[in-house]
């Protein structure tokens, strides 16, 4: 029994940092999405690189709040940003890493990751207290506004799309879905009568921030109605957007988007997330309030949605002008 408990980390013994990080990543493989585990791995690799400057710190209990604060400075100085792109490019609302120093929101994400890791160490009996507990977040003032497409750029993109990609990019622009949400969307998630798309967990996949519903506009309803008729007449796939054989979509959507961007002269079209940003940005510019945008986007908290707040400034003025006291 003791051997089994030791194997799964439930004793109160100290543990080597490398060994614990490896054990955490094994746990993450079975508990999180592969992309999430990949982000966690990058963060832990960054932290291990930082610890090379502290050769005497070898076991988990020797990690202190002071050491974590020093790690923030180390990341802000930017000695390893080639690897940082993995974290930054997959974190909500980011573009590319800066040449000098990781951005504040990236460092905050890494500290949140370490907090999660050390909380698990407490649960498993390796730590009594989380060393990140008293570590303050950095003030975020270095974020660039997210890139989004203009109406003209959206039209140029869709006009240049080959037929097999048109419906996919059209859906991205009209729903703000994440890539994994679109790839895992099945026909039972689509209610054409109620005009609703449900983002919900599957047996082998779950949404990043929980389940939600996205209403369809007229154009999207028409497109999905045609797709449903085509699907019924051909392979009868359970996936809304599928491969030619009816299986799960395998197209490299980001690479295809970049190709179209080059063909049409749309600058800086390098990320699928730009289409998601486009959906949210145009909603805000049309006067939709941020809490509603938050729900439609599936953001975990309003702070993520606040990256679009600057787009609402003119509408705020219009709102105040409606007062007639």
What does this structure look like?
The chain has 325 residues and is mainly α. The chain folds into two domains: 122 residues, Orthogonal Bundle (DNA polymerase, domain 1), CATH 1.10.150.130; 171 residues, Intergrase catalytic core (hpI Integrase, Chain A), CATH 1.10.443.10. Helix content is 53%, strand content 3%. The chain is built from 15 helices and three strands. Strands 1-2-3 form a three-stranded antiparallel beta sheet. Helix 3 packs antiparallel against helix 5. The protein starts with a helix and ends with a helix. The N terminus is likely disordered.
How would you summarize the topology of this molecule?
Layout: H1 2-7, H2 17-31, H3 34-51, H4 65-77, H5 81-89, H6 104-123, H7 151-160, H8 163-175, H9 179-183, E1 190-191, E2 196-199, E3 212-215, H10 218-233, H11 253-264, H12 273-285, H13 290-297, H14 302-305, H15 313-321
Antiparallel strand pairs: 1-2, 2-3
Helix pairs in contact: 2-3, 3-5, 8-10, 8-12, 12-13
């Amino acid at each position: 029994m003791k051997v089994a408990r030791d194997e799964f980390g439930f004793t109160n013994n100290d543990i080597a940092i490398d060994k614990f990080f490896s054990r955490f990543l094994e746990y993450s493989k079975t508990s999180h999405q592969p992309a999430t585990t990949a982000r966690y791995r990058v963060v832990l690799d960054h932290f291990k690189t930082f610890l090379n400057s502290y050769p005497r710190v070898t076991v988990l209990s020797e990690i202190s709040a002071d050491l974590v604060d020093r790690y923030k400075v180390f990341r802000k100085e930017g000695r390893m940003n080639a690897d940082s792109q993995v974290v930054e490019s997959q974190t909500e609302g980011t573009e590319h890493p800066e040449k000098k120093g990781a951005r504040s929101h990236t460092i905050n994400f890494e500290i949140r990751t370490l907090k999660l890791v050390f909380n698990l160490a407490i649960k498993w009996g390796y730590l009594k207290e989380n060393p990140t507990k008293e570590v303050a977040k950095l003030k975020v003032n270095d974020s660039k506004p997210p890139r989004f497409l203009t109406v003209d750029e959206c039209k140029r993109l869709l006009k240049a799309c080959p037929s097999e990609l048109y419906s996919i990019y059209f859906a991205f622009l009209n729903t703000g879905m994440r890539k994994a949400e679109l790839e895992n969307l099945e026909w039972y998630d689509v209610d054409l009568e109620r005009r609703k798309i449900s983002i919900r967990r599957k047996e082998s996949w779950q949404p990043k921030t929980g389940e939600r519903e996205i209403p369809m506009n007229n154009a999207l309803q028409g497109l999905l109605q045609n797709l449903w008729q085509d699907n019924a007449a051909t392979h009868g796939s359970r996936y809304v957007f599928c491969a030619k054989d009816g299986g799960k979509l395998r197209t490299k959507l980001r690479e295809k988007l970049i190709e179209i961007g080059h063909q049409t002269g749309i600058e800086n079209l390098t990320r699928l997330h730009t289409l998601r940003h486009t959906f949210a940005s145009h909603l805000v510019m049309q006067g939709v309030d941020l809490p509603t945008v938050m729900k439609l986007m599936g953001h975990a908290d309003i702070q993520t949605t606040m990256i679009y707040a600057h787009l609402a400034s003119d509408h705020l003025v219009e709102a105040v002008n409606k007062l007639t006291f």
